[in-house]
Amino acid sequence: MNVLGVRAVGEWALLFDVRPSHRHAVADRLRQAAVAGIDEVVPGENGVLVCFAPGCDVDADALRAAVDAEVVTETIPGAAELVVPVRYDGADLGDVAQLTGLAEADVVATHVACDYTVAFMGFAPGFPYLDGLSPTLRVPRLNTPRVRVEAGSVAIAGDRCCVYPGATPGGWRVIGHTDLPVFDVAASPPTPFAPGLTVRFVEDGG
Amino acid sequence: MSSVIVVERVGLRTTVQDRGRIGLAHLGVPRSGAADWRSAAFANAIVGNPADAAVLETTLTGPTLRFEAPATVAVTGAPVDVSLDGEPAEFGSQIRVSAGQRLTIGTPRVGLRAYVAVGGGIDVLAVLGSRSTDTLARIGPPPLRSGDVLPIGAAPVASSRLAVSEGMLAGVLPASDRPLRVVRGPDATDDAMRSLCSQSFCVSTNADRVGARLSGATVDDGGEAPTSGMVRGAIQVPPDGGPVVLLADHAVTGGYRVVAVVIDADLPVLAQSRPGTPTRFQEVSTQQARAASEAVRRELAVASSS
User: Fold this and answer.
1) In this predicted model, what pLDDT tens digit does every residue of B1-28 receive, in sequence order?
2) What is the pLDDT of residues B121-130, one digit of tens each?
3) A5, A77, A126, B19: which could form a disulfide with A165 (CB 3.0–4.6 Å)?
């Protein structure tokens, strides 16, 4: 049982409830299912949303059967890895050190030592929610979100890490910056991040 | 060389819209597209354009456009006065424009957004597969400015052009005797549905292409929810109970409970509702929702093949 339940989201979309550890494998299955008319497959925290083109035959049972045909693995074989070089010069690095009781150098060392996975994307185009943050780096969001966070800002909050794709408001604590283009409409795909991707951060000494 | 139109006066806010960006939601790229998809489809059908041609979407006061070459135009959506070189032109029908003529779109008496289709479509550069302006994600062409020059695609050769009845055109306008139809959402409860469908709401001033916040009453059983993919029409209810209906430019994911979803056939009505418009909801089955959606598509298909 990969699918814990299926809920309709309007007349042209279905939300497949799954364990978080299964979301990528289930999303892959949904993409590969031989079902016509699927516009979008969108992983979220506890589910995968499937959007159909209006007018299509929305067959929840067929899709569920396709996903449940065999047990899915928790890791996707051959998942790609993205290396993100970071200058750890974020405005909140000092506060994160204070909140966690670590030296700034140890915050950085802990952050680069973790392996991250893109849990899902949203909020803004190219914005990845990364799983895998060390529990020692858990800090709350800012009390007052910034009106503008620069593109490439690497930030943490709760049990997640993120990279801001463009200038947006934001409440996560910024610990560093990357020059990696996070979202570029002229690139294909427009972002190097994708759900399920493994991500490693390395300290950019240059 | 393709022909162009020149934006002489921009009006309040006019954007280019088509059916939106499809297939990139998992990367956080929203769909966008015409807020009132029915009126945009009618406009394209009237001039014989394919369904994915880009049109102009006005907000309250429309623009003045100068055509550098002859064109066939249609204006749909919120009923507006349309004039061609100062002479009245017909809303909801084909308008033949000669080279050098100026088309002026006025301010609607009811509704919010008019749609201007030009035979051949507005041929600005597509971004990630769509010419739509996403006002939240800031993808696609920026809103029009006075002096902009818009390329027009090659006029369609198809002779089939939709004649749209007044009834079909008016189907997108808010009417006090016609509640918006909703289906139960993924986080629906009986109390939530009862409070949503038994009370009268009002479109607040906090309404744009991203969504419409409703005031006047609250919905039970709102709250935060695990981050999940969203659809247009989703009625999100935050902890304060004030419902927000997501429209074309909504973000891909959201974190509030979705108690109901406005059916696709009726969402254009909300996109045409100005702040202050009274709004009520009525629950229907998924089957009824699909049938309503099918009925709209049939109107378009019948006409396009006639």
Assistant:
1) 468 999 999 999 999 999 999 999 999 9
2) 999 999 999 9
3) A126
Distance from CA of A93 to the nearest CA of B (A): 26
Q: At CB < 8 Å, which residues of chain B contact A?
A: 22-30, 127-128, 137-139, 183-186, 226-231, 233-234, 251-253, 258, 261-264, 286, 289-290, 293-294, 297
- Looking at CA atoms only, how far is residue A95 from chain B in angstroms? 27
Token pair belonging to A82: 């993205």
- Across the interface, whether the CB atoms of A15 and B251 are under 8 A apart is answered no
Asked if A199 and A128 touch (Cβ cutoff 8 Å), the reply is: yes
| Residues B136 and B81 both lie in one domain | yes
* For range A122-139, the mean pLDDT: 97
Structural domain includes residue B209: yes
What 8-state DSSP symbol labels residue B30? Answer: -
* Domain made up of A81-203: CATH architecture: Beta Barrel (2.40)
Does A42 contact B25 at a Cβ distance shorter than 8 Å? yes
- pLDDT for res B306: 46
Structure-derived torsion over alpha carbons of residues A38, A191, A168, B259, reported in degrees to the nearest 10: 20
Q: Residue B94 belongs to what domain range?
A: 4-170
**Residue B243: CATH number of its domain:** 2.40.100.10
This prediction has a pTM of: 0.95
Question: Mean pLDDT over residues B74-99, rounded?
Answer: 97
The Cβ of residue B218 has, within 10 Å, a number of other Cβ atoms equal to 16
- Is B190 inside any structural domain? yes
Q: How far is A94 from chain B (nearest CA, A)?
A: 29
How much of chain B exceeds pLDDT 90, in percent?
A: 90
- A3-67: in CATH 3.30.1360.40: yes
Q: How many helices (H) and strands (E) does chain A have?
A: 4, 13
A145 φ, ψ (degrees, to nearest 5): -60, 150
Examine the pLDDT at B303 and tell me if it is beyond 60.
no
Tokens 């009781």: give the residue: A101
Q: Which residues of B touch A11 (CB under 8 A)?
A: 183, 261, 263-264, 286, 289-290, 293
Q: Can you give the residue ranges of every domain in chain A? A: 3-67, 81-203
**Is B263 close to A13, i.e. CB distance below 8 A?**
no
What does the alpha-carbon distance between residue A137 and residue A145 come to, in Å, rounded to a whole number? 19
Q: Is B104 within a domain?
A: yes
**pLDDT reported for residue B1:** 47
